[in-house]
Each structure stands twice: as structure tokens, then as C-alpha cells.
Design goal:
Blueprint (H helix, E strand, L loop, with lengths): L3 H15 L6 E4 L14 E7 L2 E6 L2 E6 L5 E5 L12 E6 L4 E5 L3 E6 L4 H4 L13 H9 L6 H6 L9 H11 L13 H15 L32 E5 L7 E5 L6
Antiparallel strand pairs: 1-6, 2-3, 3-4, 4-8, 5-7, 6-7, 9-10
Helix pairs in contact: 3-6, 5-6
Length: 256
């Protein structure tokens, strides 16, 4: 499930393959951008912004959001793709590499000076140079009646947390995900913990919050007992008024 850490790794891989290289061909396989040709443009950099990817090439930016199933892959020019071609939404070619975005949840090509159209709504990026824990904390506290897990998931508060991390953060903070923001004694601690978890995982191939690769997550996706106390893990829906219901996990004994 793509969250801020995995998108950060994807940006690093794309940057390593594309930055400083001239595009010899581009193929946008979505109707809105099918006629765009970026060949001849030099890729300046690839960065992540929360769960969003920005490929900057001269005066334009290719923006993508992976959503649930999207992913970027990098190949040698003649290498066979590991996913079917019909899933490709954009193909970027240089002399050395082919970068393919498969099943992207969102794809935009915007003037570089108008990037705010696609990422301007985001709060501080947990893994970005603009990270500001005080701003993120203030953003969350601005809506005290929301549940803390819903507030963490809101990308306008802080950018990068998804369904996995919100469950894990609440567990490690010892608070129920259904607790309101107003009932959380130290929101800044929750914010700092969120940053620590994503930062610890940004360069790993596998997401680990427990410190144990054999059992990497405390509560998310668990059907059995809590790793810490043995109490059966619970799961439930936490509805966000701005989006679909998503499952959240918690330990009723370790979290209060």
C-alpha cells in the first residue's frame, strides 16, 4: 500500500534513472495528455510530496498519485516489462532507461510554476525539507472533534500517512484511534512519532514498525493476538466525511 515512505523510495529510484537525462520519447496513455510530446526536454529532478510524485522537466511537471494500485518501474531500454502494457499510463524514455507508471490513480501534466494546483492543498511533508511539526500539530488541533486516526489520514494536516501508519502510530502512542483530537493529551508527540516511523522506513524495502522483520507490524492487518499483550486485535471502520470508509486496527488493552 503506497504511503509516504514507499513514494519517497519511488521518487529516489526515478531521480537516479532520469535526473540530468534528456527524454528521447514520452507516451501518455490517457486521453487528456495523449498528444503531449516531451522529447528533447531534460529531466531536472524527481521528488515526492507526501503520497504524490513530481517529475520536473524544464517548464513542466508530470504529477502522479499512486492511489491503491499504482506503481512506477524503471527498465533498461530493451528489458521486458514486469506488468502488462495495457496497465501503463505513461512511458518516459531516455537513452539509458525507460520509466513506466502503471495503474496510476492520477496523472497530470502542469506548468511547473502551477504545481500548487496539484499539491498546494497538502500539509507539511513528513519526509520533505519543508517538514514543520508545529504546523502539522496546529493543523490537527484545528478540528478537535475529529478522531485522531482520521486527522492523521487527512493530507491537508500532514502529508504522507496512509491507512497502515495511522493504525501503527496510534498503537505506539497508546491511544485508541477512535479518540477525538481534543482527548489526546499530547498531539505533538503523535506527530513526532509519525515522522520518526516514516523516516525509519524511507530507505527500507519492507515497512517495519516493530523492529522485527518476521512480524513487522504491531496491529495493522493482524487477525490474531496483540504482539505485546496477547489480547485479540480489533478492527473497525473509521469514516472520514471527505472520503470512503477505511479499516483501522487497534489493541483494546494497550490503547486507551
Amino acid at each position: 500500500m503506497p504511503e509516504g515512505d514507499s513514494v519517497h523510495r519511488a521518487a529516489a529510484q526515478l531521480h537516479g534513472a532520469l535526473a540530468g537525462q534528456e527524454l528521447i520519447a514520452s507516451d501518455f496513455r490517457v486521453p487528456a495528455y495523449a498528444t503531449i510530446d516531451l522529447s528533447g526536454r531534460r529531466v531536472d529532478e524527481v521528488i515526492s510530496r507526501g503520497k504524490h510524485l513530481l517529475i520536473r522537466a524544464g517548464s513542466v511537471t508530470i504529477h502522479s498519485h499512486l492511489k491503491m494500485e499504482g506503481h512506477w518501474e524503471v527498465y533498461a531500454p530493451q528489458e521486458r516489462w514486469r506488468a502488462p502494457g495495457w496497465q501503463a499510463r505513461v512511458v518516459l524514455r531516455t537513452a539509458q532507461h525507460v520509466a513506466v507508471g502503471f495503474q496510476l490513480g492520477r496523472l497530470d501534466v502542469v506548468p511547473r510554476h502551477e504545481e500548487s494546483r496539484v499539491v498546494g492543498h497538502l500539509g507539511p511533508d513528513l519526509l520533505g525539507p519543508d517538514w514543520d511539526a508545529s504546523v502539522a500539530t496546529a493543523n490537527i488541533e484545528r478540528q478537535p472533534a475529529r478522531t485522531i486516526s482520521t486527522a492523521l489520514l487527512d493530507q491537508q494536516n500532514l502529508a504522507g500517512i496512509g491507512n497502515v501508519y495511522r493504525s501503527e502510530v496510534c498503537f505506539l502512542a497508546g491511544i485508541l484511534p477512535t479518540r477525538t483530537v481534543a482527548d489526546v493529551a499530547d498531539v505533538r508527540r503523535v506527530v513526532d512519532l509519525s515522522r520518526d516511523l516514516l523516516d525509519a522506513n524511507k530507505d527500507r524495502g519492507r515497512r517495519i514498525t516493530t523492529g522485527n522483520p518476521r512480524d513487522p507490524l504491531w496491529v495493522y492487518g493482524r487477525r490474531g493476538p496483540c504482539l505485546r499483550c496477547g489480547t485479540p486485535i480489533r478492527r473497525g471502520q473509521d469514516a472520514d466525511t471527505s472520503g470512503p470508509e477505511r479499516v483501522v486496527y487497534w489493541c483494546p488493552r494497550c490503547q486507551q
